[in-house]
Design brief:
The complex is a heterodimer of chains A (384) and B (182). By secondary structure, chain A is α/β, with parallel strands linked by helices. Chain A has two domains: 180 residues, Rossmann fold; 112 residues, Rossmann fold (3-Layer(aba) Sandwich). In chain A, strand 7, helix 6 and strand 8 form a beta-alpha-beta unit. In chain A, helix 9 crosses helix 12 and helix 10 crosses helix 11. The longest helix of chain A has 18 residues. Chain A is globular, with a radius of gyration of 21 Å. In chain B, helix 1 crosses helix 5, helix 3 packs across helix 4 and helix 4 packs antiparallel against helix 5. Chain B has one domain: Pyruvate-ferredoxin Oxidoreductase, domain 3, CATH 3.40.920. The two termini of chain B are 16 Å apart. Chain B has 182 residues and is of the alpha/beta class. A six-stranded mixed beta sheet of chain B has the order 2-3-1-4-5-6, sandwiched between helices. Classes of the chains: A alpha/beta (384), B alpha/beta (182). At the A-B interface, strand 1, strand 9 and helix 9 of A face helix 1 and strand 2 of B.
Chain lengths: 384, 182
Amino acid sequence: MPAKTILTGVHFMNGDEAIAEGAIAAGCRFFAAYPITPQSEIAERLAWRLPQIGGMFIQMEDEIAAIAAVLGASWGGMKAMTATSGPGFSLMMENLGLAVMTETPCVIVDVQRGAPSTGLPTLVAQGDMMQARWGSHGHYEIIALCPASPQEAFDLTVKAFALAERFRVPVLLMTDEVVGHMYERVEIPPEVPVAPRRRPRVPPEEFLPFQPDPDLVPPMACAGEGYRVHVTGLTHDERGYPDMTPEAHDRLVRRLVDKIRLFPEEYTFYEEVQLADAEIAVVSYGISARVSLGGIELARKAGIKAGLFRLITAWPFPDEAIHKLAQRVKGIVVVELNLGQMSREVERAVRGLVPVHGVFHAGGRIHTPEEVFQGIEEVYRRCR
Amino acid sequence: MRAELRIAGFGGQGVISAGRIAGQAAVLYDGKQATFTQSYGPEARGGACAAEVVISDVPVAYPLLTIPDVAILMSQEAYAKYAQEVKPGGILIVDPDLVDHDDRQDVRLLRVPATRIAESLGRRIVANVVMLGALAAAWSVVSKEALLKAVLAAVPPHTRELNQQAFEAGYQYVKERYGAGN
């Protein structure tokens, strides 16, 4: 039985439960969602846990309302999260853009399942990766993280809240059905630092709600604190008032993009396994990265030096790290549960230096290590 | 060391709980790594379901079963689907009252009438815990102490005594009929 406070110590829990506990540890006290497989365990756990610790759980009428409630809670001063799967993620896209435009810190979890449409409700896929990047209209920058285990689901949920506050941006946790539903050891440290919100440093009468600091992120005043809070999805000036000029629009959109793009070292995370001597690199993420380790083991047994580059941050894509990787190896294999999404980014970053081969599956099951091995063999033959 | 366990039957027999308890035992009380996954149909009861556990000394890379070392099969459907997949030299535990089975010669076949034993204790619902007791007697990858601790931690407090009896009954049944055999 989880304690009525923040959970610590070693547990055997699934990825969904770990996300719920990670949110609580990170200071989240507001969760609004609509249940959907394979996300329901997150909602179920938070429906039970949040009231225990003075937080709030709301089951909304749909996912459009769920993300709207989350934005409202964030502007009310809370750390807030919603979670869904593909169909609900699609419904959230409009308000995701609103979160970007209004610079509202929040966390959105997508436990990916087979798609398009209702697809495979109970079975795994990684087909929403491009939607995470470009699903809302307009040009924007966003942060998306991909856990490969329940432990990492916990850790990255905590990180997602910190990044959301740091950059005043919605942060997406792009997980999948297998990581969400599988149980493993999850160790929760005795203390998890709660990321502070950047507060106004001037009296209310001098405060301009969208006047950025030198790092392009404006301090945030919340409703009811005595500061003027004017929030709109329209293009706005530093006061938060609509400004329909092309100049104001370019200035705003450029700042929303640059406030993230200029600081890659703060959110670019990846893991390298056995890459030191590797001739072939497997680039993968989430559950597919773990399967890839099995394929790499088979390749090494067959005398092919292979290693893993595991994307932890999917967006912004780590162009530079992948380009450097391409300079070290002879070929790259991309393993993902779609028919080629992140592989396009890999190809773009590789800039033709080495062959890039995709091991794709539309979902419904994870790859086998043998399939990954065959992909490694294929690209190894091609680059001989 | 990588060891794999499958428990399969129909919804309502507690096979999912049993799998989670086995993983929990390995992780929380034996200090190992374990990954527990499950498959089941949309039905709450009666549909086919399987609990799958990978236990390892190091973090588990591939989270699903490749070839199980042990299978506990509690329905005919589960038997038909999974009996042949057990690794040669592995352990196959069946409930003979529920499963019409062949005598596979290349595995250690244990017939444990878990449902009947559970009924004799007054509650058919503890058949899964009888099977975990049987597992403790036949397989050393998870310790008996850890399994029992995990059972007692997972069940409602007022049913602990019954569950402990069920666990010991399964353990004793295998020890008496089949010897130590680890």
